[in-house]
Amino acid sequence: MQLSKRLESVSSLVTPGFRVADIGTDHGYIPLWLIRQGVIPGAIAMDIHKGPLQRAKENIRAYELEEKIETRLSDGLGELRPGEADCVVIAGMGGSLVIKILKEGAEVLRTVRELVLQPQSDMEKVRRFLQKEEYRITSEKMILEDGKFYPMMRAEHGRMKELSEIEALYGPCLLKEKNVCLKQFLEREQQTFENVRRSLAESKTTRAKERLLEIEEKIEQIKRAKEKMR
Asked: Is the whole model's pTM more than 0.85, yes or no?
């Protein structure tokens, strides 16, 4: 089977040998790929919707992996029991939903050794939440696929140093490693915001002036991030 670049990158953050719970599994691609590659011994594929879970079951059956991948209808981590998984994967959801799932599953997460997260939005909020809940980000990746940038991370229990504004926005590991994809992202974001700034500068409305201040702050943040990566 062939994974998308995004899902393959997410999968690569899972520690070999760990048992995985894939939350919002959809077609079950991540656990299927990990087991077929010999990375993990078993997995639980979980989804809140019956349709995607049925598709996952069909794919698991097609690869004759029913003994290694269990499927469960579950709202977030609701049906995961303590000690069943070493790694929880949550990929392709909005950042606010990721945080909600982690909050509601706090009890069972005490027995989980790592989180692999790929939020589609609100990365700053997710990173701040992890810090507040005493997780430390141990690895980050960022990829470009079909014109979209996807940041992702692995986190473990433990305290990390206070994140700066720029680290929370763009990722402490990505900045430290001078990630090439992050550099591309920052360049594109800066160009976009500068175009918006030029158009707003011609407007005299109060809202335009307020928006202009927001855009200028964004451009300044991007410049500081780029400076940090030099």
From this structure: yes
